[in-house]
Amino acid sequence: MPISILLIESDPLHAQAVVDALADPWSGWRVEVAASLRESGEYLDRNAGSPPDIVLAAQRTVDGSAFDLLRMLDGVPAMIIVRAGAETHAAQAMRYGFDDFAVQDTALDYLLTLPAQIDSVLERSSSARARRAAETMLARQHRLLQAISRAQAMFIASSGPRAAFEALLDELMALTQSAFGMVGQVQRGDDGHPYLRVHAITDISWDEASRARYAQHAEGGMVFDNLHSLVGAALVTGEPVLTNDARSDPRSAGTPRGHPPLLTYLGLPIHAAGELVAMVGLANRAEGYSAADVQFLQPLLNTVGQLEMARRAELARSAVEAQLERTSALLAEKTRALEGTLASVSQGITNVDVEGRIRVYNRRYLELLDLPESLLATQPRVEDVVRFQAERGDFGQGFELIELGARNYVASEYAAHGGRLTMPETYVRRNLQGRYIEVRTRALEQGGRVRTFTDVTDYLSTLEALRLSESRWRSLTQLSSDWYWEQDAQFRFVRLDGNPHNEAGVPDDMHYGRTRWELPHTFVSESQWREHRRQLEAHEVFHDFEMQRLAEDGRPVWISISGEPIFDEAGQFTGYRGVARDITERKLAEAEIQRLAFYDELTGLPNRRLLMDRLERAASACAREGSHGALLFLDLDNFKDINDTMGHEWGDRLLVQVGMRIGASVRATDTVARLGGDEFVVVLQGLNAELPAAGAEAEAVALKMLTALNQPYTVQNSEVHSTPSIGIALFRDVQLPVQELLQRADLAMYQAKAKGRNTLCFFDPAMQAAVTARSALEGDMRQGLLRSEFLLHYQPVVDEAGQVLGAEALVRWHHPQRGMVSPGDFIPLAEQTGLILPLGRQVLTLACQQLAQWAAAPATAMWSLAVNVSAQEFRQPDFADGVLSVLRAAGADPARLKLELTESLLLHDVEDSILKMQALRTQGVGFSLDDFGTGYSSLSYLKRLPLDQLKIDQSFVRDVLTDPNDATIACTIITLARSLGLDVVAEGVETEGQRAFLLRNGCRQFQGYLFGRPGPAGLL
């Protein structure tokens, strides 16, 4: 074992011989040489933290004697080396404190045994130090037990609290080595608030006034009633108050001016029977106080509390008795007080005389040992009571219920030979109910002894609970998902308990000796580290500091850390401790929520919400930098056809590839988003400050995207083609709302589609004006429908003689501000917005009502009325029922109603069209094929449709006299209708020549300006 030796020798030759004999690098023995006492003193001062293991000193040195060395050693073992013939000096040195000596012979043979002597001295010294430490601990425990015994005796012997409290304060001051202390009773004022009446206090008076005040209150006790103080804190809460930095503790306020400052403070409330009965205040212990001091003193405090409660009970009883029996003798009063005290304390008490007979006992003694009072009434000997208990089995078969150290003594009492063995001062036994009883014996000066019996089950249970709590803590740290950590004063990890990632690639060894910011792969920003280090250096409690680690397999691990500073008993900062928790699952869930909230699930691109945020940021950035930005709105041409023909799965895969190609066509700082369906939006920023140049840059990006998106796509090993239409809207500031920007780009995109698709188009303000006007017109139409602003004009249909056969109903809109609105302006809008359905219903209703009016007059009763039907109306499932319902409501003859349909409408779903037409035909409703010859005419379908009439479109009638083709078409239609048994009506007849030509070729019904313009029914 390595040993360091300090040799003090002025003779260099002898010193070298000793070094040669002792120094051994293999065994680790090292020898330092000091030539004088002064050098040795300097050496010991330099190495105060790590002194030598042993000192060898020559009897004489150049500057003194070895005896002068002893005062500098401070417990270091020492040997003196005397010359042959000076052994008497060696004996004297042993008496003065040297641990051993060696006699220096001329041949230096003593060096052969010197190593063994040194080993022996070191072994004795180590044993002595261990023994002294154990003795110190035992002495402190013994002193505590003595203090408890003394408190019991003083409370029993004292009539007032002062003497008992002063004795208690003396013990507490000695046990805690405090500089200041006080002990007092806790009482309550008329308002119910507690205050402390101090009966024992350290004399720390600092001037005449304070000395006079202490003397004034010495007998009655000094009152402390400031609840906003360290004393008051314990009075209010009933809990111990501990502070090792009383100067900065706000509760230390309220001390009188001139009072010595409080540096450290320990307030100990004393409870009994659930009531706060007394309090101890201790202050200015050099090394401060700890929770261990509270725990150490608790048995004493519990005893004092019980005694104080008993004393109070006795005082109360004595006060009542004093009022009743003021003439009683002082001796009788004291006897009753003693009996009351014995009856009230929580301990069992017996008084045994010199003959071993139990002269005095209390009720608690009978209760604790379950003894019959008849047994004690005869004042039996102790041996008789022990025999009674043993025969009843109270001690177990072999006295095993008695503590081992006292087992033989109790057995000897049982055998009636109790005086032969040394009586133990205290021991613990267990009764048959499992309660633990402490038996304490105190010899009396006049002979005999007092023995107390205390139920210490709760105290021992508390100790066991502390042990189990520590065990549970160990288990919890190993089994919990949280783990415990500690750092030293330099914030380096020194302890980790329960780290679940120790085996998963983030081992404990990676942490030890490092600060948190020295760990690899933490993914914490510099600003976050600065704030975290500021908290640590300020010794602040911190919560939920989050950092990310990488396991060895590259898997990210998120950790949430909380911690608090650690201070020692002197209030010095010693490090941090806290807990850590794996929050990886929570972080992954938050990231998924973030992704779902702001990103398109199919393509992974930003969705509308994130797009709006980035668009606002881009507009702000452009305004700040004075540059332009551009918003590109992309819509795939004919994407619906791909979905319908190939399926939505193919369409989704195509959309993913489109998003990737758009992303590859722009910069990393630009935003590509998917609004939904086949619509994509691109936000470009940082374009040129000049509008033409910015437009050119945006156009270049759009052309690049057009080129990329025109390339074939491979979907499930098949080649798919798709093209985009792109609308572009430029912006420069934040004046324009982002929703308006999107609308502009959307309008430009539709303009691109109108130009033939697969192209790009910049936003034109005229588009916005048209959209605004269209929106206003749509709103007016809705109001017009509600206000019945729509009316019918009628254009007559005549025969070859010019007689009116009926009319065609044409809708007109009489707007209160716009005047008469052309059907060409509002009919297309109605079809686009779906307003054609309520409008068609109104037109049909007005027409049927007019038919009912004509039927009432003989001149018009045979007139028919033609009403145009839109494709949207006809495709409604309840179209036929709706027509019949209107006819019934108006009371019109279905045979007088003719519905005009177009070729394209009928050919959309021929079978459905035939069924609806037949349903109405059976009720008498007729059908006319309008604008025949302008669409896709199919003779095979035409012969199947239940038609009554064909109408020659006015485009053929207009040039029938000048264009041979139009003339041929008109004649063909007339011939075809005749062959199918259908009537023919020529529309748009404006001249007599047109009428004559059509009449010669077989047409018998005409409609046009030649016979009358559309107008109200009264003008027919």
Could you explain how this protein is built, in words?
A hairpin with a 2-residue loop joins β4 (60-61) and β5. The protein is an alpha/beta fold and 1020 residues long. α9 crosses α10 (330-344), α25 (836-855) packs parallel to α27 and α27 runs parallel beside α29. Strands 31, 32, 33, 34, 35, 36, 37, 38 and 39 form a 9-stranded mixed beta sheet that branches. Helices cover 44% and strands 23% of the residues.
Task: Itemize the secondary structure elements and their pairings.
Blueprint (H helix, E strand, L loop, with lengths): L2 E6 L3 H11 L6 E6 L2 H10 L7 E5 L1 E2 L2 E2 L4 H4 L4 E6 L3 H10 L3 E5 L9 H44 L3 H16 L3 E9 L5 E8 L6 H9 L5 E3 L5 H8 L3 E3 L21 E8 L2 E9 L7 H34 L5 H15 L3 E5 L5 E4 L1 H7 L3 H5 L4 H11 L11 H11 L11 E5 L5 E8 L5 E7 L1 H23 L2 E6 L5 E5 L28 H12 L4 E9 L5 E12 L5 E10 L1 H15 L9 H18 L2 E9 L2 H8 L1 H17 L6 E6 L2 E9 L3 H19 L3 E3 L2 E3 L3 E8 L6 H17 L5 E3 L2 H22 L3 E9 L5 E12 L3 E3 L1 H11 L2 H20 L8 E5 L2 H4 L4 H12 L6 E5 L1 H5 L2 H12 L4 E7 L6 H4 L6 E4 L1 H5 L5 H17 L2 E4 L5 H9 L4 E2 L14
Helix pairs in contact: 5-6, 5-9, 9-10, 19-20, 23-24, 25-27, 27-29
